[in-house]
From TrEMBL:
Topology of the protein relative to the lipid bilayer: Multi-pass membrane protein
UniProt family annotation: Belongs to the TonB-dependent receptor family.
UniProt organism field: Algoriphagus marincola
Keyword DNA-binding set for record: no
Protein name: TonB-dependent receptor
Domain TonB-dependent receptor plug as annotated: residue spans: 117-221
Length: 757
């Protein structure tokens, strides 16, 4: 009887324990699609399972409590979540791919929407998260951690600049907004800082000539800024930050719907910096003071035929100045106190309309007007530029051929108060008007299952310089799983220069601008080899290697000569050739621990050869490196971003043999760190330090900063400078000795607020 009692007690407690135990069930998905063979693991118990073909999993015999659930799968970011058992709800885990770049849709390489892996043209894509890692008030500054790309500030006083790709100056870089050539001419110098990050969905970057599709200016490469789609933007987004220098930036976005079919997106950006600082004690402002506002409005119409129709408008106004610390607007344009004051007023209109036809016909259009009112000391520059552009494209699939053809027309009007628009022999102004019609054709041929060949050609007729022909060819081969991709390309580029709208040095300082001849269009031939290899490990890590080798040969290159006469800038076509060549390597990685990022390096050799003499190009580094490294503490919603760059020596523009300043810049690095804390679903608080190493260019970067009107300079009859006891180095006032930002270490703090649908 005693044995029977003991047996019944044991059975009772065993049954109670079994009754008290629970289970963990759920499914694992990616973008609502089930993931098979995902690992589900409870580290406290050392117990786990795998998902089935429908993404479901089940773990039985679990005591009530809260468990840490780790879900991992090769090629996906590890997910960690706390879950309480028992629960009436099903646990659904959504895994994020470690790398989605291969399947990102790109348009810049072929003017057609294709996945990045299928594009025969190597394209780099940077999403909005990349720019949040180092928040800046403009697109110009935000490009400083992209491999092979360098924002170059060209003036120590007014801080205007351009974007260099693979060592080539800004005029060789074409900047597009939604595929439209809006940022050109005057905007390449004065309009880049007015493009707010809040408008950006992604940036597509193509290195090397793209003139076959985009015409003049796309010689060194192109940057296509893709704005957000109106219907997909957040309902409300606010991003504001300030720095310890007194800079304040505000981005505001608003999405609305007008009626049943019209989606609207409004963007407002304001930036203000009104705190003169002279840390290097040269008597001049270290950083230009600025007040800027940019208004953006985009509409998208839902048409019954589901064809695309969108239109956008943007207006920019900026008032910036730099110069002597005691300058005020009352001295604007005078010769008492030196200041460089620039008023920019700019409007833009651009859009896209798919024709309601059976054939795939698409019309893109843009127009912009740019008015510039600037003074550089007592030198007045008034510029007025208007550009209109239209392009009609037709696409057709025929078997293994993907055809694209198009007609384009571009009209450019430019007028100013400089010799650029003065008519020879006549005492009157003669504005420049250029008509540029063009036609292009492209055939992408699917040679095999994993091979494609792209052939294209374009012809433009410049109303000043005549016809210009640009061919190109691209070949791509890949492995069946797209983990290995090789691309080979060759093409031709051309550029018609307008010095006064592209080169700020022609407007500032004390130099005279000399044209030795009528400038002819530049030509270039380029080859590029690109290899992409992606690795996935069983532990859930991801690594990609992206390597390129490039070579560009220029003829008729337009070179500003700063060295023949220190009092002049002489423009002429190069009587010889120029070469830009090099290699670059970028690696992207993501680890299950939360560490991710990219590291890149570029080795460059940019030279000019004339009369058998070869020399390095001014302001072209031989080595550059960049990095963006982040670590996420997912359980507490905290992310740390460490970004930076490093540059090797560049040859700098000296004012003659007696100039005591170094001919080459030193090695330098700009590094930044940021912490971002997510609070709920709508708030982010971020802050950090920029220029951690407090690197600054030499204090004597501005030659004779104490004498900006050259009152203490003696000139010979030929315009050259005469050495004197008061000026033994034969210098003139010149702010073009510039290779790095002149802003030291500073803290920043900001907040983001977002309401999604």
């Amino acid at each position: 009887m005693k044995k029977l009692y003991s047996f019944l007690v044991l059975m009772f407690f065993s049954s109670f324990g079994a009754f008290a135990q629970g289970s963990l069930s759920g499914r694992v998905v990616q973008a609502d699609k089930p993931l098979e063979f995902a690992s589900v693991y409870l580290p406290e118990l050392g117990k786990g399972t795998m998902t089935d073909s429908a993404g479901y999993f089940l773990l039985d015999d679990l005591l009530p409590g809260t468990y840490r659930v780790e879900v991992s799968m090769m090629g996906y970011r590890k997910s960690v979540e706390d879950w309480t058992i028992p629960s009436k709800e099903e646990l659904v885990i959504s895994l994020q791919p470690l790398d989605t770049s291969l399947e990102e849709v790109v348009v810049s390489g072929t003017l057609q929407e294709v996945s990045r892996s299928n594009s025969p043209v190597p394209i780099e894509v940077y999403k909005d998260g990349f720019f949040k890692a180092n928040p800046t008030p403009s697109i110009f500054e935000s490009l400083q951690t992209i491999n092979g790309v360098r924002p170059q500030i060209n003036c120590n006083i007014c801080n205007t600049g351009d974007i260099h790709i693979n060592g080539l100056e800004g005029p060789y870089t074409m900047v597009l907004i939604d595929g439209m050539p809006i940022v050109s001419g005057l905007a390449t110098v004065y309009g880049l800082t007015g493009i707010p990050q809040s408008l950006i969905d992604r940036i597509e970057l193509v290195k090397g000539p793209a003139s076959t599709l985009y015409g003049s200016e796309a010689v060194g490469g192109l940057i296509n800024i893709i704005t957000k789609r109106a219907e997909l933007a957040p309902i409300v987004s606010v991003d504001a930050f300030g720095t310890s220098w007194g800079e304040v930036n505000l981005d505001l976005g608003l999405k609305t719907k007008i009626g049943e079919r019209v989606h609207s997106m409004t963007g407002i950006n304001t930036f203000q910096y009104d705190n003169p600082i002279d840390n290097n004690e040269d008597g001049m402002t270290d950083v230009t003071l600025s007040k800027r506002i940019s208004l953006f409005q985009k509409f998208r119409v839902d048409r019954k035929n589901r064809k695309e129709f969108n239109v956008a408008l943007r207006y920019l106004y900026e008032d910036r100045w730099g110069g002597e610390m005691n300058w005020t607007p009352e001295f604007r344009g005078g010769d008492e106190i030196y200041g460089e004051s620039i008023y920019t007023s700019r409007w833009e209109l651009f859009g896209n309309y798919e024709l309601p036809t059976i054939e795939n016909l698409n019309f893109q259009f843009s127009a912009n007007g740019h008015n510039q009112n600037s003074v550089y000391g007592d030198m007045l520059y008034l510029g007025d530029q208007k550009i209109a552009f239209g392009q009609l494209t037709w696409t057709k699939s025929l078997g293994n051929h993907q055809l694209l053809s198009g007609l384009a027309y571009r009209y450019t009007y430019y007028d100013d108060n400089t010799p650029a628009t003065a008519s020879a022999g006549l005492d009157q102004n003669l504005p420049s008007e250029i008509h540029l019609p063009g036609a292009f054709v492209q055939d992408e041929i699917q040679v095999g299952k994993n091979k494609s060949l792209l052939l294209g050609a374009r012809v433009d007729y410049n109303s000043v310089h005549g016809p210009i022909f640009s061919p190109r060819a691209n070949f791509k081969v890949s492995s069946s799983d797209q983990s290995l991709i090789f691309r080979l390309s060759a093409g031709n580029g051309f550029r018609v220069a307008n010095v006064f709208t592209e080169d700020h040095a022609a407007l500032t300082g004390a130099r005279d601008v000399i044209f030795e001849e009528e400038l002819q269009p530049e030509r270039s031939w380029n080859t590029n080899a690109n290899l992409v290899k992606k690795f996935y490990t069983n532990s859930g890590a991801f690594l990609s290697l992206d390597a390129s080798a490039f070579y560009t040969y220029f003829t008729n290159r337009i070179i500003p000569d700063y060295e023949t006469n220190p009092n002049q800038i002489i423009y002429a076509n190069l009587d010889g050739h120029s070469v830009s060549q090099g290699v670059s390597l970028t690696t992207n990685f993501a680890l299950p621990s939360g560490l991710e990022g990219n590291i890149g390096a570029t080795f460059l050799d940019v030279t000019l050869t004339e009369e058998g003499i070869t020399e390095r190009q001014i302001l072209a580094e031989r080595f550059s490196g960049v990095w963006n490294i982040a670590y996420s503490f997912s359980r507490i919603g905290l992310k740390i971003d460490y970004t930076g760059n490093v540059y090797g020596p560049m040859r700098l523009p000296l004012l003659g043999e007696l100039d005591p300043r170094p001919e080459y810049s030193p090695w330098f690095s700009i590094q930044n760190i940021q912490a971002t804390k997510v609070i709920g679903k709508r708030w982010e608080i971020y802050g950090g330090v920029k220029n951690l190493l407090n690197f600054l260019p030499p204090a004597n970067s501005i030659a004779r900063a104490f004498d900006p009107f050259d009152r203490g300079v003696d000139f010979a009859e030929d315009g050259s400078v005469i050495p004197t006891p008061g000026n033994p180095n034969a210098l003139t006032f010149d702010p073009s000795y510039m290779f790095a930002p002149n802003q030291g270490i500073r803290g920043f703090l900001g907040a983001r607020f977002t309401i999604l649908d």
